[in-house]
Specification:
- The chain has about 325 residues and is an alpha/beta fold.
- It folds into three domains: about 70 residues, no CATH class; about 110 residues, Ribonuclease H-like superfamily/Ribonuclease H (Nucleotidyltransferase, domain 5, 2-Layer Sandwich), CATH 3.30.420; about 130 residues, no CATH class.
- It has 16 helices and five strands.
- Helix 3 packs across helix 16, helix 7 runs antiparallel to helix 8 and helix 7 packs antiparallel against helix 13.
């Protein structure tokens, strides 16, 4: 239309149109809802649209979701890193554990400088409102949090701690397999090794999650090898540490658990116990009532992100991946 003020020809802004004026916002939101459960390629084929045009409509939908969600002011955060491609290329994901959604995706790696970018984005006022930060035992995350949010209690994620314990159990299993390989009697060697071979996930899984065949295999394995039996029982009992309401009782349990390693010749477990002792403050923080948060959310979010990446066979557009992650827990518009 012709503008009477400046004398130029201008296009009228219509609120019902998407950023791409060939489509309406209503259609863009429909595309966004479809792309939550399907790939861009499949939706583009279904709607007979260009792949790039449909992707931009999906981006507009996710931007509208973030705008409606508002600026976060978290009280309890979960920090973890994800791999976005091969070659140890990492990005940091920060979640609001109380609202149950990711709030920040960024950084260039998993260094302290990248973690500081989150607190700079959040601002000093909102950073001062954080009372709890859940993370793995990666030192740069801890240093950045201590420097930018010193009032926040640091809690080490239970699932990362248990993963270290599972690694120790697997090292014991491989050591036992190697020890039996060196036995002189071939028949005895073959008989004892067959109980250990291929039983890695049987040992690492919780007993209640095993099938009947898995439980029988576990029972046979533990009856055949005393050292693996001891290591398995120690691994299962360690989870009790997170059930205590008092740090004193939790420490007494850990000291007793560590003392039971004496004369067992379980070197990986001894190294694990030393690591727990070094990071005790971040583990014992869970005993305080104000720090009782859902520790499984960060791990569940990681699984959801892997599904997003696998469904798309990897995402080369990092901004698109960022929007996908930040909106994966938001309500549908």
């Amino acid at each position: 239309m012709h503008c009477r003020s400046c004398g130029k020809v201008k296009r009228e802004r219509l609120n019902f149109l998407a950023d791409n004026p060939l489509y309406t916002k209503r259609f863009a939101f429909y595309v966004g809802r479809r792309c939550r459960s399907a790939t861009v390629k499949d939706v583009a084929k279904e709607l007979h649209l260009d792949w790039h045009a449909l992707k931009e409509l999906d981006k507009q939908y996710m931007a509208a979701q973030l705008a409606r969600a508002g600026t976060p002011g978290p009280k309890a955060i979960g920090i973890d890193e994800i791999s976005i491609r091969k070659g140890h290329t990492y990005r940091i994901v920060v979640s609001d554990l109380i609202r149950g959604r990711p709030i920040w995706f960024g950084g260039q790696d998993r260094s302290e400088a990248s973690m500081v970018q989150f607190y700079d984005w959040l601002g000093p006022k909102k950073s001062a409102g954080i009372r709890l930060a859940v993370m793995d035992m990666w030192k740069p995350f801890r240093n950045a949090t201590t420097g930018k949010a010193p009032q926040a209690a640091i809690l080490f994620d239970k699932f990362h701690v248990i993963r270290h314990l599972n690694d120790a159990l697997d090292k014991v299993r491989r050591t036992e397999y190697a020890r039996l390989t060196g036995k002189a009697c071939p028949e005895q060697r073959r008989r004892e090794r067959r109980f250990i071979k291929g039983q890695k996930y049987t040992l690492l899984s919780h007993r209640e999650n095993l099938s009947m065949d898995g439980r029988r295999a576990l029972k046979t394995l533990l009856a055949a090898n005393k050292r693996l039996n001891t290591a398995y029982l120690l691994k299962e009992s360690f989870g009790q540490l997170w059930s205590y309401q008092s740090e004193g009782w939790a420490r007494r349990f850990f000291d007793n658990w560590r003392a039971s390693l004496k004369w067992q010749r379980l070197k990986p477990y001894e190294k694990f116990a030393e690591m727990i002792d070094r990071h005790w403050d971040g583990i014992a923080a869970y005993c305080k009532p104000e720090n009782k948060v859902a520790l499984g959310f960060v791990e569940g979010l990681n699984n959801k992100i892997r599904v997003i990446q696998r469904r798309s066979y990897g995402l080369r557009d990092e901004e698109y991946l960022r929007l996908k992650i930040l909106t994966c827990m938001l309500p549908i518009l």
